[in-house]
Predict the 3D structure of the following.
Amino acid sequence: MLVNELAKAAEVSTDTIRFYNRIGLIEAAAREDNGYRQFAPRDVDTVRFVHAAKRLGLKLKEIKDFLKTGDRDASSCCGQTIKLLKRRAEETRQLIRDLHLVEAAIQGAIDGWDETPGCTVKAQSRCPRITLARVP
């Protein structure tokens, strides 16, 4: 299976396949005489798994480690997966909390703008609304 065939079957771009190959998430089974990479049919599932894991917010290193562990010890996959997903869920909740703080600071800058008639910033100055915005 060539790069373009694998990309089509896994519903990703050819650049994604080449990138995953370059960083070791998938290995080309062989190279043809013309230099084209040949991939195994099982790589379709691997690419789909990597793509789905990325959508869940897992990092490529975590995914790579997971793929290596899964190959050695399939029985530990479920425990490792739930632990990783729980940690990612907490990281996501923290990110959402942080984004709410940033949103409030942005809204405060906007509200302050509405309370300031006209802009008195000189050509060489920076916008005071940005400088005065407070993000915890």
Summary: Strands lie at 30-31, 37-38. The helical segments are 3-10, 14-22, 42-55, 60-72, 77-115, 128-132.
